[in-house]
Write a structure and sequence with these properties.
Three copies of one chain form a homotrimer. By secondary structure, chain A is of the alpha/beta class. Chain A has two domains: 2-91, MurE/MurF, N-terminal domain (Udp-n-acetylmuramoylalanyl-d-glutamate--2,6- Diaminopimelate Ligase, Chain: A, domain 1, 3-Layer(aba) Sandwich), CATH 3.40.1390; 100-312, 3 Solenoid (UDP N-Acetylglucosamine Acyltransferase, domain 1). Helices cover 17% and strands 29% of the residues of chain A. Chain A has five helices and 40 strands. In chain A, the strands form six sheets. A twelve-stranded mixed sheet of chain A has the order 8-11-14-17-20-25-28-31-34-37-39-40, with helices on one face. A ten-stranded parallel sheet of chain A has the order 9-12-15-18-21-26-29-32-35-38, with no helix packed on it. Chains A and B meet through helix 3 and helix 5 of A and strand 22, strand 23, helix 4 and helix 5 of B.
């Protein structure tokens, strides 16, 4: 239990209304009950606020006052999503195992694990690994030899980190993530078959990278596949060998990057988007869902379609596409009409 | 070995022809040999039936008689696919390990496993879990704390079920499935980087849910991601946090649902289809392969395209699209012709 | 260290320039330093060669001479990519664990493991398996009963091979691969729900198949899902039950094949492409990225689009699509103009 006024202080929010309200939990607007802090970041949903059973509501600075008697207490934040993130941490801390090393874990004698770490059942850690302090390695994590990770490294069950990977601080891997699998490199032989090009580079994950379930980041063929600081990958994402992704870029679920793709800082690739090999996606660029490009994309723009082009133009094209059958018919009718008109003109010439 | 007449009884089929035929196995029409029951559910493939070496053929009620001497014995079923499913169970039962707990499994002392269960090598089960009777947990399954599962729960190797998950009866998880991985929730900070929004909700899988290999169902941010009774997910499917999928819906391979998507009962999303966040897909609606929507879709209709619209209209649009280059040329020619005609008219005015 | 002339011999290359140059490593053109062999297979990037710090450059037979003083030593290969693959093997051999069986591995007493094999920590091998000589089974590989694999089988951490799978020689599975998961087969019952059709067939992987991280190949419903010799699957690929893929075919990342698809020899399906069930893709056919087909595709052609058609025609259609909004406007203007012209003609008739 925490008083609303005290919560306001911890979340760096302005408290509007009764600061003595007791807050015991956090929930979404529709599910919130007595004692809950709810939140509403979309002003278009303002009307819903009047009916909530929440004890208080976290909103943005410019969110309108909620007309209700007695008044609903508000917390106003400059960046309400960030305040919500912090509020969840305070009010419903996620489960986290305490420190300790499970006796079933198989850690190579030469490996070093930092103090305060948890190493779960059946974790396997190879020769020469160095894992920083306060790591949480859930059961069945596999770390191949010569992996170096910074502090507060979290890896969930069945994450695999292959040999030579370099990992910064505060990196999180969800279950089933594969870091450093072989890149897809084959050379066509004269007989039509393929010779494997050994993949002997590595992966580097910089600070605060988070990678969600069952995503794959391939090792470079010779040098480094790099995910810059703060890069976030959703589930089932594919990052091929030699890719280089700048800081704070977001790849949504099932996005695929082919080999040697470069993505600039703060870009967003929406779900199921794809980028062909050796392309550059500019800083801050957005690629919308299911779109794909086999060419470079400029910085700071939004692209759509497969192949992708400028989003506004694509909106016009897709609107027209939905009535393309009609357009085809109209064009046919028009041709007939013009042929007829030409004929009339022709006859008139006689 | 079983007599055809007896098999007919067990499958609730009508036996047409020699009921004394001995059936020893089941195979597809092309591969079937002596003693095999084959099946044919597509009447357009009727001609193939005459040449089968099968001992008998399972077909639908209205399937035409197979002209052959001696006559091919038939089993006629109201729902032939359902009868085939049952016939495979009887004639070629799938391998299944017997009950028993492998000594290498690491089960928290507080966890309960129902009678008749199999727990394979290196399975890890966390604190407070309750798994119902007759479970089959293949080697390397990882169950985090506080997971509750009903009866006859089957999880294949490397399935991961994260903390707090609720699982009904008769649920099957294929290898590598991840249930309850963190949702993809981040709040943009003033400096352009992202703060993680802790994901502290759960996943609920109702009775008879089956999820195929390496698919991911994320835990809700605060409340529940739910898969209704009988929902089936194919391989490599992505279900984001807070999704709600009603009973008996099918998501084919590589389908992706973004956060808070709602899908009605009995819908079918074909392979690689996608739905953006906060959309509703109506009851019984079909989305065809590789299609995607960022808006709500009505119940009981078929949608195609990316972005998706009504399927019949999409068929016309795609037919026209294949000759869009020609349409563009025709339009150009027509403009020139009309300009010419206008000029003639103009000249005539003089 | 190896002399360039000796390396030339081992790689079956022609040495052009100073054969006494000492080679100590291999790197890409941009990263290469003193002692490194670099390589350049794309003649369009010829200009970059002049500035490399590499000790020597591996190129194709017809690559132009690099103008530089002193001259840059060249290795010329008939198939430069194949020579690069061999050069990496020689100059930077990939890490590989030595033979030996980890005491934590759980191998059924009836299983046979060939001589020279490595079996890592927590590997589980079921009843009746026979694994050939010189296998490398990394930690946490799970092999269900009755799996037969040839020589030099490599499986990375968390690969799962389900019961009855047949594997040829020199097969490589990257981490998290699932072989033999149940096919997605359900029969609709009268009540709208689905009955599971047991999947009791198997998977056959022929010689030199390589499957990358987290890809899934489902077991056949009754017979066999087959990947022919030399087939390569990239990450997160889906191969459904009963598919048959001929030799030396490439499926790039996130490709999906629905059930009973047949793909001819030497085909290439680019990233995120999809093929619907029961289709045939011809020998040597290319499907470009994000394309999809629900019909058969002829041999030796290139297809694009969703639904896919001939690539050259698709290029024209997509070029026109980007200005479809303009086309729509032009068509509208043209109709108005023609209506006006018709009116003029009409008036002239009076």
């Amino acid at each position: 239990m925490i008083r609303l006024s005290e919560l306001a202080q911890q979340l760096e929010c302005e408290c509007e209304g009764d600061g003595e309200v007791a807050i015991t939990g956090i929930a979404s607007l529709g599910s919130a009950g007595a004692g809950d802090l709810a939140f509403l970041t979309d002003p278009r949903r303002q009307a819903e606020a009047a009916h909530t059973r929440a004890a208080a509501l976290l909103v943005g600075r410019r969110f309108p006052r909620v007309e209700r008697e007695p008044a609903l207490a508000l917390l106003r934040a400059e960046r309400p999503e960030v305040a919500v993130a912090r509020a969840v941490e305070l009010l419903r801390p996620a489960w986290r195992p305490g420190p300790g090393i499970d006796p079933s874990a198989r850690i190579h004698p030469s490996a070093e694990i930092g103090p305060g770490s948890y190493v779960g059942a059946f974790v396997a850690i190879g020769e020469g690994c160095r894992i920083g302090a306060d790591a949480v390695l859930h059961p069945h994590v596999v770390i191949y030899p010569d992996v170096v990770a910074g502090e507060r490294f979290t890896a969930h069950a069945h994450a695999v980190i292959r040999e030579g990977t370099r990992i910064g601080n505060d990196v999180i891997l969800q279950p089933g993530v594969v870091i450093g699998g072989d890149g897809f490199g084959f050379a066509r032989r004269a007989d039509g078959g393929y010779a494997k090009i050994p993949q002997v580079g590595r992966v580097r994950l910089e600070d605060r990278v988070e990678i969600q379930a069952n995503s794959c980041v391939d090792r470079a063929s010779l040098e480094e596949t790099r995910l810059g600081a703060g890069v976030k990958l959703d589930n089932l994402v594919q990052v091929a060998h030699n890719c280089d992704i700048e800081a704070d870029t977001i790849l949504c679920a099932q996005v695929g990057l082919a080999g040697s793709t470069q993505v600039g800082e703060g870009a967003v690739l929406a779900g199921q988007a794809g980028v062909a090999g050796h392309c550059r996606v500019g800083r801050g660029t957005v690629i919308t869902a299911q779109s794909g490009t086999h060419g470079d994309l400029e910085a700071g723009k939004m692209y759509s379609g497969s192949p992708a082009f400028e989003h506004g133009q694509w909106l016009r094209s897709t609107a027209a596409f939905a009535r393309l059958g009609d357009m085809q018919r109209e064009l046919r009718e028009l041709r007939a009409r013009v042929r007829e008109l030409s004929g009339e003109s022709g006859r008139k010439r006689d």
